[in-house]
Design a protein that fits this description.
The protein folds into three domains: 1-38; 40-219 and 286-330, Rossmann fold (3-Layer(aba) Sandwich), CATH 3.40.50; 222-285, no CATH class. It contains 17 helices and eight strands. 44% of the residues lie in helices and 12% in strands. An eight-stranded mixed β-sheet has the order 3-4-5-2-6-7-1-8. A hairpin with a 2-residue loop joins strand 4 and strand 5. By secondary structure, it is of the alpha/beta class. Helix 5 (55-66) packs across helix 6 (80-94) and helix 13 packs antiparallel against helix 14. It is globular, with a radius of gyration of 22 Å. Bound molecules: adenosine-5'-triphosphate and magnesium ion. Adenosine-5'-triphosphate binds at residues 51-54, 57, 76-82, 197, 252, 254-255.
């Protein structure tokens, strides 16, 4: 249909445009620009949502446009969920009859993180469609929805030329869901974006970084404009000189701040798994003195412990001890 439109004369096109609502027209324009190679999804996001996206966020948008699979390992608080939500809406709005499926390890994460960003952006940009808490329907079969379940049947019945799957907090997504996603991402125009904090290489998320066919992006705190704007490096965090370098407001006050990194450096230490993962955005190498791997701690912190999920209450008897090491006694 879009290809036919390219043959229209200007008058024919104007005649058609007069029959459409402004929102329908905007979707059509997006699709036409994409078909003629003129659309830039970064521009679409900045213009439609009235935001500025920073360099690594742009890299993610472009990778999703250009590659069937994109995996992003990233530190804390640099706008992963923000950009995933914008990509979800951009993809849905500019691809007729498309389907966007988003998932995360828990329903709270789906509803209150990614879909909260989607709901706010949808409202601010006055986009069309019927919006529910975790569903946006443009018309029957042209839809975005979010779910968190171990039931891979959630993917059943999804068939479309354009499908985008977004795995937020991807390290904690059940292997069955990864497997089921393969079944719907079959066409050349289908996309998978997995994005999250890297805590465990022995996961499906970790596998993405070993697969040569996957586009890989790394984001560490020192890539963020709140650091690059002032030239703040790891060394500045270590010797405390970062503070003297901040001579104006942070360019993105919502993103992770240098003070947070300085605190975590003191608290966790540069070699700790938590610092490697949450600050540097790298998969941690567990040390020989690691008793409980960081990946287990993170999985426990995000586990759904609601009565629905666990059934009978779990009762634990814990004898917590305190072992004072020579270091602590000093
Ligand atoms: N380009 C941007 N412009 C304005 N605000 C932004 C931008 N990117 C992210 N934000 C805001 O910064 C905050 C952190 O973003 P977000 O929650 O997406 O980060 P994250 O990397 O997913 O964090 P976490 O590690 O906690 O999952 C949010 O309030 C988000 O709305
Ligand atoms: Mg997030």
């Amino acid at each position: 249909m879009i290809k036919d439109l390219l043959k229209y004369t200007e008058e024919e096109f104007l005649e058609l445009a007069n029959t459409l609502t402004p929102q329908e027209l905007s979707i059509l324009q997006g699709e036409l620009e994409r078909e003629t190679g003129a659309i830039d999804p970064c521009n679409y996001i900045e213009e439609v949502f009235g935001v500025r996206i920073w360099s690594k966020q742009k890299e993610v948008v472009e990778a999703v446009r250009d590659n069937p699979r994109t995996a992003v390992r990233s530190c804390h608080g640099v706008g992963k969920s923000f950009i995933s939500a914008k990509i979800a809406l951009e993809f849905l709005m500019t691809h007729p009859e498309s389907i966007v499926v988003t998932t995360a390890p828990t329903m709270r994460q789906v509803q209150e993180i990614l879909w909260k960003e989607i709901r706010v952006s949808h409202h601010k940009a006055s986009l069309p469609g019927i919006l529910l808490k975790t569903k946006l329907e443009l018309r029957d079969g042209w839809v975005a929805f979010g779910f968190a379940t171990k039931n891979p049947n959630a993917f059943q019945g999804i068939h479309a030329e354009y499908v985008l799957c977004i795995f937020d907090e991807a390290r904690g997504i059940d292997p069955m869901i990864w497997e089921a996603a393969e079944g719907i991402l079959t066409g050349s125009k289908c996309r998978l974006l997995s994005i999250g904090n890297p805590t465990d290489m022995a996961t499906n998320f970790g596998d993405e970084f070993r697969d040569p066919k996957v586009a890989k992006i790394h984001i560490g705190v020192f890539d963020s404009p709140n650091f690059t704007e002032f030239g703040i490096t790891q060394e500045d965090i270590e010797d405390g000189s970062w503070e003297g370098k901040i001579n104006k407001e942070l360019p993105y006050p919502q993103l992770v701040e240098p003070i947070w990194v300085a605190e975590k450096y003191k608290k966790w230490g540069k070699k700790s798994a938590a610092y490697q993962s949450r600050v540097l955005g790298e998969f941690p190498t567990e040390g020989t003195d690691t008793l409980i791997p960081l990946a287990w701690v993170m999985a426990a912190a995000h586990r759904d412990l609601s009565a629905d999920a666990v059934g009978e209450p779990v009762v634990l008897g814990v004898d917590v001890t305190e072992i004072l090491t020579a270091k602590h006694e000093k």
